[in-house]
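Margin note from the TA: students keep mixing up input and output lines. Inputs are the sequences; the output is the structure of the whole complex. Example:
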Amino acid sequence: MNKRIPILIASASLLVAVGGVFVALLAPGGSGQPIPNFVDSGDDATLGEKLLDDYKARFDAHLESGRPFIDAFFSEIRLVDFATVGIEPEFVLADLGCGVGTLPLALLAQDIPFKKVYALDVNTYSLDFLRYALEKGISPKSGRVFPKRSKYTDIGLQDDIVDILFIVEVPAIYYSLTMTGHYQDDAEAFARMERLFATIRKAVKVDGELHFIYPTQTPTSGDLDPAALVEAMSRVGFRLVQQSTVALQVENYYFIFAQSESTKSDRSVRTPGAVAY
Ligand SMILES: C[S@@+](CC[C@H](N)C(=O)[O-])C[C@H]1O[C@@H](n2cnc3c(N)ncnc32)[C@H](O)[C@@H]1O
């Protein structure tokens, strides 16, 4: 037989295989399209339903690909190594502005021991996506994640239950607190934050913590101002305990705040790291 024939067959098979992967990556709803960190629907119900259906289809296609479920998500919070941030097995956690729930899903993917996590957002479509993802049998601990709608000025949790509250990349909160960006000099926006944080202070245990994570720089809004954030947080009842940076897809600030009235000595300094799945 002509020696070239097996080589030709092998090359053709390789082309078909590579082509197949390429087509799968490009196909609508294929595993190549990451799921954004929230359903950006505003008040538009038609858009909300459409995006929700699309993200569900992307998730289904991703699960069928056999890759780890957490790789389906765009948000870089999945890359935080949650074993390094001080979560203890009996802790009740909350994630305010959770979007599609990348943080709680990352806790499950990394098998972090915790008691429960409230996934809170003002957008019902994001929460519906998270419920859908949790029902897919991705983790035996899915039942520890509680998606719950919150209000712009009310976190909507019981008093004194949260050990660590996470706020991850929520521009509306950062800019309202610092009265910059869309909320430049907007005293009403800050007043809404005072109302929101009054409810946060009640929900977070007096010796609990608030972890605020945000890119040091974003293409649309430039540099985050850490001093302005710390100052604004002190006005709503939280004092800075620790500030560091963590390199995810881009560099992020990782702030740890405690309630201003907490007399508990600070827990040991932690070095939040990044994880590779
Ligand atoms: C850019 S997304 C970030 C999602 C997620 N934290 C992440 O990093 O992947 C911001 C989310 O915050 C929500 N949000 C904005 N203001 C909020 C507020 N006051 N309370 C609760 N959620 C809020 C939005 O609906 C949106 O889902």
